[in-house]
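Hey, resending since the last one bounced:
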Amino acid sequence: MHSYKNIKIKLLLLVVVLLAIFSLVTFYYEKNSIQNEINAKHKILHSNVENTFNVLLEDLKNDIQVKLNNMFKLNKNMAKSFALKNRKELYQYVKPLYDNLKVNNKYLKIMTFRLVDGTTFLRVHKPKMYGDKLSKSRKIIIDTNNFKENQYGFEIGKLKMTYRIVMPIFYKNEHIGLVEVGIEPEFIMEKINKIYGLKSALVVKNYKNKILNSKYIIEKDYYLIRGDKLFKEQSEKIIFNIKHNHIIYKEREYHIDSKLNLNDHKNNVAAKILIAYDTTENIKAFDKLLEENILRNIFLVLILLVVLNFSFNYFIDKIIFEAKKNLENEKILTEQAKLVSMGEMIGNIAHQWRQPLSVISTGATGLIRQKEYGILDEETLVKCCTNINDNAQYLSKTIDDFKNFIKGDKKEVEFVLKDTIDSFINLVKGSITNNNINIQLNLEDGLKIHGYPNELIQCLINIFNNSKDAIVENSIKEGLFLIEIFKKDDEVIILTRDNAKGIPSNVIDKIFEPYFTTKHQSKGTGLGLHMTYNLIVEGMNGTISVKNTNFKYKNHDNIGAEFMIALKIGNKK
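The structure tokens again:
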């Protein structure tokens, strides 16, 4: 009995030591996990802000460009008036459009017509101010006239910093000058602040002493022009390009982000939008979670000691319970990975909708304008309506593909592989375009298999997303993603290849393992390819393998990863 007691005491002491070590390790791990989660949230928020900024800027550019093009198309006399240097007549033509643009965007402040030598011919916003020569610092004007191509970018003019959209004007195939539209950056800042509830400020790079009216200097050569009081009162504490730039203002803690650049037409930084993210609640939650975790671990040690004192079986049951819990967590994370993939697809679909929506909007606007000017004929009406209908049908097809995908039907059916590939392409089309990836298909016609088409689409999306991320990470300008499908004996083989330089040889054997990822934690859970493996092997009774491969495409050598999926023909699982 005495020996059993000694063994029990020794075991309890061992458990105390192990639990103490476990508690310290858990504390350190949870502290890092919570911090990483906060950092990941900040990174995602910054990415969302940056994407919103780029979308707003692109939409603004396209909108103004379309309206300027329509302005000259719908009124042929406008270019003629400019060519004949009839300022009064040109002003009468342009003024209604300028007023309409200002109604829709209060930050549109400038519309200027300039001759080929850069001389101001007409300022629509200040019609009595004209004839001044072009400053040599107005590079966007000089380049537009020299190259006779549209130019876009942020630039400091005589009055202020604006986003410039500059288009050359031609009359009878002769270059006669240009038109310039300027929109204040507040147009974008106001929308971002409203969407995300942020504080922001505009800082402008001092170019040849142009910006002299600001007493707030943000680092060398950057001046605070407009923004929240926070930036003015804390300007000395703001430092660019550091990972953690935190400041405290009115008992709130903010993280300052200086990565949102406003570039000129040559992609040089002309200004920055500073963003202040309020991190106060996150830090409070961080401290609270750490405190709770410490108390929880202490309580856990005491409880386990009491339990172990009466029964070691409970400890074994606890291990079994935790093992089951981890399995459930893996299932939950797998579903989360599906939701992340679905969220990315929604973003891609939104991106690929812009062009058809723009075509529909432009077509409808064009019909209205032509009707107003009495130049609408039946042929133009039919052609424009057909174009609008074609684009609307395309949008409807995208909705149907996405709706069918998210149904998640688990019913095994016979399906045509080509239709499944078409749906996959439609779902990732936005990502293909956005990341400049060339997808090439080599499909054998008429191939059918039994299985789950939505799950096969999910697998292809997972493989494509990994290839896309590797292409972006390796800065490959012209990405390739090749799909080849053919019959071999009683199987259908699906091959995918990319030119993302392949998978490192020391990790390629682990690529299908759960939680294994070569990406940053904020970019991947490590479950995408593990999910793909399970869907193919367990869900569709097939096989999947990966290797690095060299291949030629258009007489160019490429190196990348090759995934091979083999599925039985015609036989149900």
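The first strand starts at residue 108 and ends at 114.

Sorry for the duplicate.
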